[in-house]
Automatic annotation (TrEMBL):
CAAX prenyl protease 2/Lysostaphin resistance protein A-like domain span: 115-206
A family per Pfam: Rce1-like
DNA damage listed as a keyword: no
Record's protein name: CAAX prenyl protease 2/Lysostaphin resistance protein A-like domain-containing protein
Organism, as annotated: Nitrosomonas ureae
């Protein structure tokens, strides 16, 4: 399970989850959310450091020279559709728990440093880190332990469904997360390149971030 190929895709995701758990624990021990505003910047810095350090292991991030323009258009459209789903699938039964959210304002003044860090993290770092873990590693590993030899198009229904369900459970908006997981899975399987779901994921998170800033719906962060 923990050979180098596996570890390099699990470690950045694991670090991200560690900081999420740490934040929850600190909040339960009486820390104020305002006291933890810089924790996200630390989290993203650690993830970037791990991704950069282990970059030589990510063969699936080699740029696909044979991919068509249509592949990228479909990925962007898919990302927009996931964004629309994310802000609309909000019925009580579609939500699990309560998200803390992130309010970058300080005395009603926007902290643009924190906003910038959040946008960069959500739109540029998280899509790479999560797609390496969820799609490239987990979905293919569930199909066969030697996941690097698995053609994304050959992933079976069982691995597809388990990955989508776990991706959903990892988000408080679990139903929107399930929809996103299915869409990103299909993009990877149909395109054969991890850059397709990465682009879709980045589109979703980027538009969502801009929408959050514009509308002040900080709970979505």
């Amino acid at each position: 399970m923990f050979d180098r190929a596996n570890f390099c895709r699990i470690a950045p995701f694991g670090a991200y989850v560690f900081f999420m758990v740490l934040e929850d624990v600190l909040l339960k021990f009486g820390w104020e959310a305002n006291d933890l505003r810089m924790l996200y910047a630390v989290k993203i810095t650690v993830v970037i450091g791990l991704l950069w350090t282990m970059r030589s292991a990510y063969s699936e991030l080699h740029w696909p020279i044979n991919s068509s323009f249509r592949t990228w258009v479909i990925a962007i459209i898919a990302g927009i559709l996931v964004f629309v789903a994310w802000i609309n699938l909000l019925a009580d039964w579609m939500v699990m728990g309560e998200a803390v959210g992130f309010d970058p304002r300080d005395n009603n003044e926007m902290d643009w440093f924190l906003v910038t860090v959040r946008l960069i993290g959500a739109a540029l770092v998280v899509p790479v880190m999560e797609e390496l873990f969820w799609r490239s590693f987990l979905m293919r590993w569930l199909a066969h332990p030697n996941f690097l030899a698995v053609n994304p198009a050959q992933v079976g229904v069982k691995a597809f469904c388990i990955t989508a369900i776990l991706f959903a459970i990892a988000h408080s908006l679990w139903f929107a997360g399930l929809f996103a997981g299915i869409v990103y899975n299909m993009l990877y399987m149909r395109s054969g390149t991890l850059w397709s779901p990465i682009l879709a994921h980045a589109t979703t998170n980027g538009i969502l971030g801009i929408w959050i800033i514009y509308t002040g719906n900080w709970g979505f962060w």
